[in-house]
Protein backbone atom coordinates (compact mmCIF):
# COMPACT_ATOMS: atom_id res chain seq x y z
CA UNK A 1 0.00 0.00 0.00
CA UNK A 2 2.97 2.23 0.52
CA UNK A 3 4.59 2.36 -2.85
CA UNK A 4 4.50 5.47 -4.94
CA UNK A 5 6.01 6.48 -8.25
CA UNK A 6 8.55 8.60 -6.44
CA UNK A 7 11.46 7.17 -4.51
CA UNK A 8 9.97 7.75 -1.06
CA UNK A 9 7.23 5.50 0.29
CA UNK A 10 3.97 7.39 0.64
CA UNK A 11 2.78 8.10 4.16
CA UNK A 12 -0.26 6.21 5.35
CA UNK A 13 -3.54 8.14 5.09
CA UNK A 14 -7.15 7.73 6.18
CA UNK A 15 -9.53 7.08 3.30
CA UNK A 16 -11.99 9.67 4.63
CA UNK A 17 -12.59 12.19 7.38
CA UNK A 18 -15.24 9.85 8.77
CA UNK A 19 -12.61 7.13 8.95
CA UNK A 20 -10.35 9.47 10.90
CA UNK A 21 -13.10 10.47 13.33
CA UNK A 22 -14.03 6.83 13.90
CA UNK A 23 -10.40 5.80 14.41
CA UNK A 24 -9.70 8.71 16.76
CA UNK A 25 -12.99 8.22 18.59
CA UNK A 26 -12.17 4.51 18.66
CA UNK A 27 -8.89 5.35 20.31
CA UNK A 28 -10.57 7.65 22.78
CA UNK A 29 -13.53 5.45 23.64
CA UNK A 30 -12.20 2.50 25.55
CA UNK A 31 -11.80 0.99 28.96
CA UNK A 32 -11.35 4.55 30.15
CA UNK A 33 -15.00 5.23 29.38
CA UNK A 34 -16.63 1.89 30.09
CA UNK A 35 -14.58 0.60 32.99
CA UNK A 36 -12.78 3.51 34.67
CA UNK A 37 -15.31 6.31 34.29
CA UNK A 38 -18.27 4.51 35.91
CA UNK A 39 -16.18 3.30 38.85
CA UNK A 40 -14.64 6.74 39.35
CA UNK A 41 -18.13 8.24 39.30
CA UNK A 42 -19.23 5.65 41.85
CA UNK A 43 -16.27 6.30 44.12
CA UNK A 44 -16.31 10.08 43.87
CA UNK A 45 -19.82 11.16 44.69
CA UNK A 46 -21.69 10.51 41.45
CA UNK A 47 -22.60 13.62 39.56
CA UNK A 48 -20.13 15.85 41.44
CA UNK A 49 -17.38 13.96 39.67
CA UNK A 50 -19.24 14.21 36.36
CA UNK A 51 -19.40 18.00 36.71
CA UNK A 52 -15.67 18.34 37.33
CA UNK A 53 -15.00 15.95 34.50
CA UNK A 54 -17.16 17.91 32.05
CA UNK A 55 -15.44 21.11 33.10
CA UNK A 56 -12.03 19.62 32.28
CA UNK A 57 -13.24 18.16 28.97
CA UNK A 58 -14.47 21.55 27.83
CA UNK A 59 -11.55 23.63 29.04
CA UNK A 60 -8.64 21.27 28.67
CA UNK A 61 -9.77 18.38 26.46
CA UNK A 62 -10.99 20.25 23.40
CA UNK A 63 -8.23 22.89 23.56
CA UNK A 64 -5.49 20.29 23.62
CA UNK A 65 -7.09 18.03 21.04
CA UNK A 66 -7.08 20.92 18.55
CA UNK A 67 -3.42 21.70 19.28
CA UNK A 68 -2.28 18.09 19.11
CA UNK A 69 -4.02 17.22 15.84
CA UNK A 70 -2.72 20.48 14.31
CA UNK A 71 0.90 19.51 15.01
CA UNK A 72 0.40 16.11 13.41
CA UNK A 73 -1.32 17.28 10.29
CA UNK A 74 0.99 20.23 9.76
CA UNK A 75 4.26 18.34 10.18
CA UNK A 76 3.00 15.03 8.68
CA UNK A 77 5.36 13.36 11.09
CA UNK A 78 5.42 11.05 14.09
CA UNK A 79 5.47 12.74 17.54
CA UNK A 80 9.23 12.51 18.06
CA UNK A 81 10.21 14.14 14.78
CA UNK A 82 7.23 16.50 14.91
CA UNK A 83 8.21 17.99 18.26
CA UNK A 84 11.81 18.10 17.16
CA UNK A 85 10.75 20.07 14.10
CA UNK A 86 8.96 22.59 16.31
CA UNK A 87 12.08 22.91 18.41
CA UNK A 88 14.98 20.49 18.97
CA UNK A 89 14.55 21.21 22.69
CA UNK A 90 11.09 19.63 22.56
CA UNK A 91 12.10 16.26 21.13
CA UNK A 92 11.74 14.64 24.59
CA UNK A 93 8.01 15.43 24.58
CA UNK A 94 7.52 13.18 21.57
CA UNK A 95 9.71 10.48 23.09
CA UNK A 96 7.78 10.62 26.36
CA UNK A 97 4.48 10.33 24.52
CA UNK A 98 5.57 7.40 22.39
CA UNK A 99 6.94 5.59 25.44
CA UNK A 100 3.79 6.19 27.44
CA UNK A 101 1.71 4.48 24.75
CA UNK A 102 3.83 1.41 25.40
CA UNK A 103 3.36 1.71 29.16
CA UNK A 104 -0.40 2.07 28.79
CA UNK A 105 -0.81 -0.90 26.47
CA UNK A 106 1.32 -3.06 28.76
CA UNK A 107 -1.29 -2.97 31.55
CA UNK A 108 -4.35 -2.21 29.41
CA UNK A 109 -3.95 -5.62 27.78
CA UNK A 110 -4.26 -7.23 31.21
CA UNK A 111 -7.74 -5.78 31.58
CA UNK A 112 -8.36 -6.61 27.90
CA UNK A 113 -7.67 -10.23 28.87
CA UNK A 114 -10.19 -9.98 31.72
CA UNK A 115 -12.82 -8.87 29.22
CA UNK A 116 -12.09 -11.92 27.07
CA UNK A 117 -12.45 -14.14 30.12
CA UNK A 118 -15.82 -12.63 31.01
CA UNK A 119 -16.96 -12.79 27.42
CA UNK A 120 -16.25 -16.51 27.48
CA UNK A 121 -17.97 -16.78 30.85
CA UNK A 122 -21.07 -15.03 29.63
CA UNK A 123 -21.30 -17.49 26.76
CA UNK A 124 -21.50 -20.22 29.37
CA UNK A 125 -24.13 -18.05 31.07
CA UNK A 126 -24.03 -16.06 34.27
CA UNK A 127 -25.23 -18.00 37.23
CA UNK A 128 -27.01 -16.43 40.18
CA UNK A 129 -25.70 -19.05 42.58
CA UNK A 130 -22.11 -17.98 41.95
CA UNK A 131 -20.25 -15.56 44.16
CA UNK A 132 -18.65 -13.24 41.64
CA UNK A 133 -16.14 -11.84 44.09
CA UNK A 134 -14.78 -15.34 44.36
CA UNK A 135 -14.89 -15.85 40.60
CA UNK A 136 -12.87 -12.67 40.06
CA UNK A 137 -10.37 -13.45 42.82
CA UNK A 138 -9.86 -17.00 41.67
CA UNK A 139 -9.36 -15.89 38.12
CA UNK A 140 -6.95 -13.04 38.81
CA UNK A 141 -4.98 -15.04 41.35
CA UNK A 142 -4.35 -17.75 38.78
CA UNK A 143 -1.10 -16.68 37.06
CA UNK A 144 -1.42 -19.18 34.20
CA UNK A 145 -4.91 -18.03 33.27
CA UNK A 146 -3.98 -14.36 33.59
CA UNK A 147 -1.03 -14.90 31.37
CA UNK A 148 -3.15 -16.77 28.83
CA UNK A 149 -5.92 -14.17 28.50
CA UNK A 150 -3.38 -11.34 28.44
CA UNK A 151 -1.50 -13.12 25.64
CA UNK A 152 -4.62 -13.79 23.57
CA UNK A 153 -5.57 -10.12 23.82
CA UNK A 154 -2.10 -9.18 22.60
CA UNK A 155 -2.32 -11.49 19.61
CA UNK A 156 -5.65 -9.99 18.50
CA UNK A 157 -4.23 -6.50 18.94
CA UNK A 158 -1.17 -7.42 16.91
CA UNK A 159 -3.19 -8.89 14.06
CA UNK A 160 -5.19 -5.70 13.61
CA UNK A 161 -2.32 -3.20 13.71
CA UNK A 162 -0.21 -5.39 11.47
CA UNK A 163 -2.90 -5.09 8.79
CA UNK A 164 -2.07 -1.40 8.43
CA UNK A 165 -3.61 1.98 9.03
CA UNK A 166 -6.46 1.77 6.50
CA UNK A 167 -7.14 -1.95 6.37
CA UNK A 168 -6.55 -2.54 10.07
CA UNK A 169 -7.21 0.46 12.28
CA UNK A 170 -9.65 2.43 10.13
CA UNK A 171 -11.70 -0.50 8.86
CA UNK A 172 -11.99 -2.05 12.29
CA UNK A 173 -13.02 1.22 13.96
CA UNK A 174 -15.55 2.07 11.25
CA UNK A 175 -17.39 -1.18 11.93
CA UNK A 176 -16.93 -1.52 15.67
CA UNK A 177 -17.66 2.04 16.81
CA UNK A 178 -21.19 2.30 15.41
CA UNK A 179 -21.89 -1.26 16.62
CA UNK A 180 -20.75 -0.22 20.06
CA UNK A 181 -23.14 2.70 20.19
CA UNK A 182 -26.14 0.57 19.25
CA UNK A 183 -25.23 -2.06 21.83
CA UNK A 184 -24.77 0.56 24.52
CA UNK A 185 -28.17 2.01 23.91
CA UNK A 186 -29.72 -1.48 24.17
CA UNK A 187 -28.02 -2.17 27.48
CA UNK A 188 -28.98 1.25 28.84
CA UNK A 189 -32.65 0.77 27.98
CA UNK A 190 -32.62 -2.57 29.77
CA UNK A 191 -31.02 -1.28 32.97
CA UNK A 192 -33.05 1.93 33.09
CA UNK A 193 -36.26 -0.08 33.01
CA UNK A 194 -35.29 -2.23 36.02
CA UNK A 195 -37.30 -1.78 39.20
CA UNK A 196 -35.44 0.55 41.53
CA UNK A 197 -33.33 2.11 38.77
CA UNK A 198 -34.47 5.61 39.74
CA UNK A 199 -32.17 5.78 42.74
CA UNK A 200 -29.20 5.26 40.47
CA UNK A 201 -30.40 7.98 38.15
CA UNK A 202 -30.68 10.31 41.12
CA UNK A 203 -27.12 9.45 42.13
CA UNK A 204 -25.99 10.57 38.69
CA UNK A 205 -27.97 13.79 38.77
CA UNK A 206 -27.78 14.98 42.37
CA UNK A 207 -24.23 16.10 43.12
CA UNK A 208 -22.62 15.38 46.48
CA UNK A 209 -19.97 18.10 46.44
CA UNK A 210 -18.78 17.09 49.90
CA UNK A 211 -17.09 14.15 48.20
CA UNK A 212 -14.92 16.44 46.10
CA UNK A 213 -11.37 16.73 47.32
CA UNK A 214 -7.96 17.25 45.76
CA UNK A 215 -7.62 13.60 44.91
CA UNK A 216 -10.93 13.63 43.09
CA UNK A 217 -9.90 16.66 41.08
CA UNK A 218 -6.60 15.05 40.07
CA UNK A 219 -8.32 11.86 39.13
CA UNK A 220 -10.91 13.74 37.08
CA UNK A 221 -8.13 15.53 35.23
CA UNK A 222 -6.08 12.36 34.78
CA UNK A 223 -9.22 10.69 33.51
CA UNK A 224 -9.78 13.39 30.90
CA UNK A 225 -6.25 12.86 29.57
CA UNK A 226 -6.59 9.11 29.64
CA UNK A 227 -10.04 8.98 28.17
CA UNK A 228 -9.33 11.42 25.34
CA UNK A 229 -5.95 9.77 24.60
CA UNK A 230 -4.36 13.20 25.09
CA UNK A 231 -0.73 14.15 25.44
CA UNK A 232 0.71 10.82 24.34
CA UNK A 233 1.06 11.51 20.64
CA UNK A 234 -1.79 9.25 19.52
CA UNK A 235 -3.94 12.11 18.26
CA UNK A 236 -0.85 13.73 16.80
CA UNK A 237 -0.01 10.59 14.82
CA UNK A 238 -3.62 10.08 13.73
CA UNK A 239 -3.69 13.74 12.68
CA UNK A 240 -0.62 13.15 10.55
CA UNK A 241 -2.58 10.58 8.51
CA UNK A 242 -5.31 13.16 7.82
CA UNK A 243 -5.75 14.71 4.40
CA UNK A 244 -5.01 18.41 4.05
CA UNK A 245 -8.47 19.25 2.75
CA UNK A 246 -10.37 17.68 5.66
CA UNK A 247 -11.83 19.86 8.40
CA UNK A 248 -9.61 19.04 11.38
CA UNK A 249 -11.21 21.63 13.62
CA UNK A 250 -14.59 19.96 13.43
CA UNK A 251 -13.05 16.54 14.09
CA UNK A 252 -11.07 17.88 17.05
CA UNK A 253 -14.29 19.06 18.65
CA UNK A 254 -16.31 15.98 17.68
CA UNK A 255 -13.93 13.44 19.19
CA UNK A 256 -14.07 14.74 22.81
CA UNK A 257 -17.84 15.10 22.50
CA UNK A 258 -18.33 11.50 21.32
CA UNK A 259 -15.96 10.27 24.00
CA UNK A 260 -17.77 12.13 26.77
CA UNK A 261 -21.19 11.01 25.60
CA UNK A 262 -20.09 7.39 25.66
CA UNK A 263 -18.58 7.78 29.15
CA UNK A 264 -21.79 9.27 30.49
CA UNK A 265 -23.88 6.67 28.71
CA UNK A 266 -21.75 3.99 30.35
CA UNK A 267 -22.42 5.45 33.79
CA UNK A 268 -26.13 5.68 32.95
CA UNK A 269 -26.10 2.05 31.81
CA UNK A 270 -24.36 0.79 34.94
CA UNK A 271 -25.40 2.86 37.97
CA UNK A 272 -29.16 2.29 37.83
CA UNK A 273 -28.53 -1.47 37.81
CA UNK A 274 -26.12 -1.19 40.73
CA UNK A 275 -28.79 0.59 42.77
CA UNK A 276 -31.63 -1.60 41.57
CA UNK A 277 -29.82 -4.63 42.98
CA UNK A 278 -28.76 -2.77 46.12
CA UNK A 279 -25.06 -3.14 45.45
CA UNK A 280 -22.42 -0.58 46.33
CA UNK A 281 -21.50 2.03 43.70
CA UNK A 282 -18.14 2.49 45.39
CA UNK A 283 -16.75 -0.93 44.41
CA UNK A 284 -13.89 0.66 42.44
CA UNK A 285 -12.06 -1.29 39.73
CA UNK A 286 -14.03 -4.52 40.37
CA UNK A 287 -17.31 -2.74 39.57
CA UNK A 288 -17.32 -4.17 36.08
CA UNK A 289 -16.00 -7.57 37.00
CA UNK A 290 -17.81 -8.35 40.24
CA UNK A 291 -20.80 -6.04 40.54
CA UNK A 292 -21.97 -6.29 36.94
CA UNK A 293 -21.77 -10.07 36.53
CA UNK A 294 -23.70 -10.36 39.80
CA UNK A 295 -26.36 -8.11 38.30
CA UNK A 296 -26.42 -9.96 34.98
CA UNK A 297 -26.86 -13.24 36.79
CA UNK A 298 -30.01 -11.93 38.49
CA UNK A 299 -31.54 -9.75 35.83
CA UNK A 300 -34.21 -10.93 33.38
CA UNK A 301 -32.44 -11.39 30.01
CA UNK A 302 -29.23 -10.96 31.99
CA UNK A 303 -27.26 -13.51 29.98
CA UNK A 304 -27.89 -11.87 26.67
CA UNK A 305 -27.36 -8.40 28.08
CA UNK A 306 -24.19 -9.59 29.80
CA UNK A 307 -22.81 -11.03 26.61
CA UNK A 308 -23.68 -7.93 24.59
CA UNK A 309 -22.17 -5.76 27.30
CA UNK A 310 -18.83 -7.56 27.46
CA UNK A 311 -18.69 -7.73 23.66
CA UNK A 312 -19.10 -3.99 23.49
CA UNK A 313 -16.46 -3.43 26.13
CA UNK A 314 -14.17 -5.65 24.11
CA UNK A 315 -14.83 -3.62 20.93
CA UNK A 316 -14.13 -0.40 22.78
CA UNK A 317 -10.95 -1.76 24.33
CA UNK A 318 -9.52 -3.15 21.12
CA UNK A 319 -10.13 0.02 19.08
CA UNK A 320 -8.21 1.89 21.80
CA UNK A 321 -5.37 -0.48 22.24
CA UNK A 322 -4.63 -0.65 18.53
CA UNK A 323 -3.91 3.09 18.68
CA UNK A 324 -1.47 3.00 21.56
CA UNK A 325 1.60 1.81 19.71
CA UNK A 326 0.88 3.90 16.63
CA UNK A 327 3.04 6.83 17.78
CA UNK A 328 6.08 4.63 18.23
CA UNK A 329 5.39 2.57 15.11
CA UNK A 330 5.12 5.71 12.98
CA UNK A 331 8.43 6.88 14.49
CA UNK A 332 10.23 3.73 13.35
CA UNK A 333 8.56 3.90 9.96
CA UNK A 334 9.25 7.62 9.36
CA UNK A 335 12.58 7.97 11.03
CA UNK A 336 14.35 4.69 10.43
CA UNK A 337 12.36 3.76 7.31
CA UNK A 338 11.45 0.40 8.82
CA UNK A 339 8.73 -1.44 7.09
CA UNK A 340 5.47 -1.37 9.03
CA UNK A 341 5.36 -5.08 9.77
CA UNK A 342 8.80 -5.03 11.36
CA UNK A 343 7.93 -1.94 13.42
CA UNK A 344 4.68 -3.54 14.60
CA UNK A 345 6.43 -6.79 15.51
CA UNK A 346 9.27 -5.23 17.46
CA UNK A 347 7.03 -2.82 19.35
CA UNK A 348 4.42 -5.42 20.17
CA UNK A 349 7.03 -7.84 21.46
CA UNK A 350 8.61 -5.16 23.64
CA UNK A 351 5.27 -4.07 25.09
CA UNK A 352 4.22 -7.66 25.69
CA UNK A 353 7.34 -8.31 27.77
CA UNK A 354 6.79 -5.11 29.72
CA UNK A 355 3.20 -6.16 30.42
CA UNK A 356 4.00 -9.53 31.97
CA UNK A 357 4.77 -8.10 35.46
CA UNK A 358 1.42 -6.26 35.36
CA UNK A 359 -0.36 -9.47 34.44
CA UNK A 360 1.31 -11.15 37.39
CA UNK A 361 0.67 -8.36 39.86
CA UNK A 362 -2.62 -9.91 40.96
CA UNK A 363 -0.99 -13.18 41.89
CA UNK A 364 2.75 -13.96 42.01
CA UNK A 365 3.76 -10.30 42.34
CA UNK A 366 0.77 -9.30 44.47
CA UNK A 367 2.87 -8.11 47.38
CA UNK A 368 5.46 -6.33 45.32
CA UNK A 369 4.75 -2.62 45.67
CA UNK A 370 6.61 0.09 43.76
CA UNK A 371 4.93 2.91 45.67
CA UNK A 372 3.10 2.35 48.95
CA UNK A 373 -0.18 0.59 48.13
CA UNK A 374 0.57 0.38 44.44
CA UNK A 375 1.23 -2.90 42.70
CA UNK A 376 3.11 -2.86 39.40
CA UNK A 377 -0.24 -2.73 37.59
CA UNK A 378 -1.46 0.24 39.70
CA UNK A 379 1.86 1.97 39.34
CA UNK A 380 1.84 1.74 35.54
CA UNK A 381 -1.64 3.28 35.46
CA UNK A 382 -0.66 6.03 37.90
CA UNK A 383 2.55 6.80 36.01
CA UNK A 384 0.77 7.06 32.66
CA UNK A 385 -2.46 8.89 33.53
CA UNK A 386 -1.46 11.01 36.47
CA UNK A 387 2.14 11.86 35.61
CA UNK A 388 3.20 11.37 32.00
CA UNK A 389 -0.05 12.48 30.35
CA UNK A 390 -0.39 15.77 32.31
CA UNK A 391 3.32 16.53 31.77
CA UNK A 392 2.82 15.82 28.06
CA UNK A 393 -0.25 18.08 28.17
CA UNK A 394 1.64 21.03 29.66
CA UNK A 395 4.44 20.54 27.15
CA UNK A 396 1.87 20.49 24.33
CA UNK A 397 0.40 23.83 25.52
CA UNK A 398 3.83 25.40 25.70
CA UNK A 399 4.93 23.99 22.36
CA UNK A 400 1.94 25.26 20.38
CA UNK A 401 1.05 28.26 22.53
CA UNK A 402 4.48 29.73 22.99
CA UNK A 403 7.19 28.10 20.90
CA UNK A 404 6.01 26.89 17.48
CA UNK A 405 6.93 29.76 15.11
CA UNK A 406 6.74 32.16 18.03
CA UNK A 407 3.50 30.71 19.38
CA UNK A 408 -0.09 31.88 19.07
CA UNK A 409 0.07 35.66 19.37
CA UNK A 410 -1.74 38.77 18.27
CA UNK A 411 -0.33 40.86 15.44
CA UNK A 412 1.23 43.94 16.98
CA UNK A 413 -0.37 47.21 15.99
CA UNK A 414 1.82 49.14 13.54
CA UNK A 415 3.89 46.09 12.83
CA UNK A 416 4.72 45.96 9.18
CA UNK A 417 7.32 43.22 9.13
CA UNK A 418 6.62 40.61 6.49
CA UNK A 419 5.66 37.75 8.80
CA UNK A 420 3.52 39.78 11.15
CA UNK A 421 1.51 41.32 8.33
CA UNK A 422 -0.04 38.02 7.49
CA UNK A 423 -2.80 37.68 10.06
CA UNK A 424 -5.92 35.69 10.85
CA UNK A 425 -8.56 37.42 12.95
CA UNK A 426 -5.83 39.55 14.48
CA UNK A 427 -3.48 36.65 15.18
CA UNK A 428 -0.16 36.01 13.47
CA UNK A 429 -0.97 33.41 10.86
CA UNK A 430 1.59 30.76 11.76
CA UNK A 431 1.59 27.08 10.82
CA UNK A 432 -0.70 26.12 13.70
CA UNK A 433 -3.39 28.59 12.70
CA UNK A 434 -3.01 27.83 9.00
CA UNK A 435 -3.46 24.16 9.76
CA UNK A 436 -6.52 24.59 11.97
CA UNK A 437 -8.24 26.92 9.50
CA UNK A 438 -7.16 25.08 6.32
CA UNK A 439 -5.25 28.16 5.32
CA UNK A 440 -8.01 30.59 6.19
CA UNK A 441 -10.81 28.60 4.55
CA UNK A 442 -12.41 27.44 7.80
CA UNK A 443 -13.83 29.89 10.31
CA UNK A 444 -12.24 29.64 13.74
CA UNK A 445 -14.34 32.18 15.56
CA UNK A 446 -13.32 31.00 19.02
CA UNK A 447 -9.66 31.62 18.31
CA UNK A 448 -9.14 34.14 21.15
CA UNK A 449 -10.69 31.82 23.71
CA UNK A 450 -8.66 28.91 22.42
CA UNK A 451 -5.46 30.97 22.51
CA UNK A 452 -6.13 32.05 26.09
CA UNK A 453 -6.93 28.53 27.24
CA UNK A 454 -3.93 27.06 25.46
CA UNK A 455 -1.38 29.60 26.63
CA UNK A 456 -2.58 30.33 30.14
CA UNK A 457 -5.52 28.48 31.57
CA UNK A 458 -4.57 24.91 30.63
CA UNK A 459 -0.87 24.89 31.52
CA UNK A 460 -1.44 26.78 34.77
CA UNK A 461 -4.40 24.62 35.80
CA UNK A 462 -2.69 21.34 34.92
CA UNK A 463 0.48 22.40 36.72
CA UNK A 464 -1.38 23.59 39.82
CA UNK A 465 -3.41 20.41 40.19
CA UNK A 466 -0.37 18.31 39.46
CA UNK A 467 1.96 19.98 41.99
CA UNK A 468 -0.72 20.16 44.61
CA UNK A 469 -1.03 16.41 44.51
CA UNK A 470 2.64 15.46 44.53
N1 LIG B 1 -8.50 6.68 25.64
C1 LIG B 1 -8.36 5.27 25.84
C2 LIG B 1 -9.47 4.79 26.78
O1 LIG B 1 -10.29 5.55 27.19
C3 LIG B 1 -7.01 4.92 26.37
C4 LIG B 1 -5.86 5.47 25.58
C5 LIG B 1 -4.93 6.28 26.18
C6 LIG B 1 -5.71 5.17 24.23
C7 LIG B 1 -3.86 6.79 25.49
C8 LIG B 1 -4.62 5.69 23.51
C9 LIG B 1 -3.70 6.49 24.14
O2 LIG B 1 -9.54 3.66 27.10
Describe, in plain words, how this protein is organized in 3D.
The protein is mainly α and 470 residues long. The chain has 20 helices and 4 strands. The protein has helices at residues 17-28, 31-43, 47-75, 79-86, 91-123, 132-140, 143-162, 165-192, 198-205, 214-227, 234-240, 248-276, 291-298, 302-324, 326-335, 340-359, 376-403, 418-421, 431-436, 447-469, and strands at 369-371, 374-375, 423-424, 427-428. Strands 1-2 form a two-stranded antiparallel ribbon. The protein has a two-stranded antiparallel ribbon with strand order 3-4. The radius of gyration is 22 Å and the shape is globular. The termini are far apart. Phenylalanine binds at residues 27-28, 30-33, 101, 104, 226-227, 229, 232, 234, 320, 323-324.
Helix-strand pattern, N to C?
A: HHHHHHHHHHHHHHHHEEHHEEHH
**Number of E-type strands:** 4
**Which ligands accompany this protein?**
phenylalanine
- Summed over residues and divided by their number, the pLDDT gives a mean of 89
Shape: globular
Radius of gyration: 22 Å
Q: Strand fraction band?
A: under 5%
Class based on secondary structure composition and strand pairing: mainly alpha
Low-confidence stretches: 1-8
Report the major sheet: 2 strands, antiparallel
The helix content is over 70%
Helix tally equals 20
Query: What gap, in angstroms, lies between the N and C termini?
Result: 47 Å
As laid out across the biggest beta sheet, the strand order is: 1-2
Amino acid sequence: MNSDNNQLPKRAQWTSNFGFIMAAAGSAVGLGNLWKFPFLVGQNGGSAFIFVYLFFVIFIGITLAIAEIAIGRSTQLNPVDAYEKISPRLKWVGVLGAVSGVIILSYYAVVGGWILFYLAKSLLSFNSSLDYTKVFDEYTSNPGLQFLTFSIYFIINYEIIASGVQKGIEKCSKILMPALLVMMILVTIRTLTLDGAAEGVEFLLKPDFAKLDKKTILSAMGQVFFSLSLGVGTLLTFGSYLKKEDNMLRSAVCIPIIDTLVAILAAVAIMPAVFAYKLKPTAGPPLMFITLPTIFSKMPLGNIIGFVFFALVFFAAITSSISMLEALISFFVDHYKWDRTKAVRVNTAMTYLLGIPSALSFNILKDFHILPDKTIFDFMDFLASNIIMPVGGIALCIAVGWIWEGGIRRVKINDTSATEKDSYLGYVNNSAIKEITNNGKIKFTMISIWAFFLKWLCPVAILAIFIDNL
